[in-house]
Amino acid sequence: MLRKNAKSQIFDEWPEKYDQWFTTPIGSLVKKVEGELLLDLLNPARTERILDAGCGTGVFTHDMLFCGAKVIGLDVSLPMLMRARQKARGFDFQGAAADILNLPFPENCFDKVISVTALEFIADGEKAVRELFRVTRKSGVIVVATLNSLSPWATRRKEAAQRGHTLFQKVVFRSPDELASLAPVPGITRTGVFFRKEEDANSAASIEQEGRRKGLNTGAFLVARWVKP
Questions:
Q1: d(Cα 78, Cα 81) in Å, to the nearest integer?
Q2: Closest by alpha carbon to 52, among 125, 127, 123, 132?
Q3: What single DSSP character describes residue 148?
Q4: Percent of the chain, pLDDT > 90?
């Protein structure tokens, strides 16, 4: 059984708030942008065995399941994991309560591995990525998404941390170059969510298109993709 720790206790209080935010106009746009970027880089396929490390409430897990993949969702927070299980009813989904730094799986057992917005809560990012590589088969794909330190969203969260926000005091923000450097092999990085949280949803959509057109690296949602040699 996973021991309770400060990290899991923080997330235990967030399932409802987390899911509700993605139903707001700007939250829905964020989910759309992030989901499309993740699917493009992960490209989940039918019967593939995928680990969703730090799955949270399963916001993006469903997209993989809908593609026909077999997903194991892992998280340190049992309330988060229980919410993910509820959403995944009827699909090939299993939940595991564990930490990314110590994955309870043998080497080379997943076709693909993904971790979305969990790495910012792990100081030893290199060890976390090394674990993700370990459980991925040769020629398998590893996708990691985190909050981009070059984005205005990161700046706001740093300011919130200074004001005493408990959750954001625990985060580690990384740039595209810093994220890429955590892996033992070269990969690619892309960013999305170029708009700010306070933008009107219609204006935000236009800003997003402009950011993509320019190929900016300052989007709040930073994603790296590697292939295990």
A1: 5
A2: 132
A3: B
A4: 79
* Its pTM surpasses 0.85: yes
Q: Which residues contact 94 (CB under 8 A, 6 or more apart)?
A: 71, 72, 73
- Asked if residue 118 lies in contact with residue 53, where contact means CB atoms within 8 angstroms, the answer is yes
Angle between helix axes 25-42 and 201-214 (nearest 10 degrees) is 30
User: Shortest CA distance to 146 belongs to which of 133, 134, 129?
Assistant: 129
Report all structural domains of the chain as residue ranges with CATH numbers, in order of start: 6-227 (3.40.50.150)
**For residues 223 and 38, is the Cβ–Cβ distance under 8 A?**
yes
Give phi and psi for 63, each to the nearest 5.
Answer: -60, -40
Can you tell me which residue has the tokens 């090394």?
Answer: 130
Let me know: does 35 contact 58? Beta carbons within 8 Å: no
CB 8 within 8 A of CB 82: no
Tokens matching residue 15: 């399932």
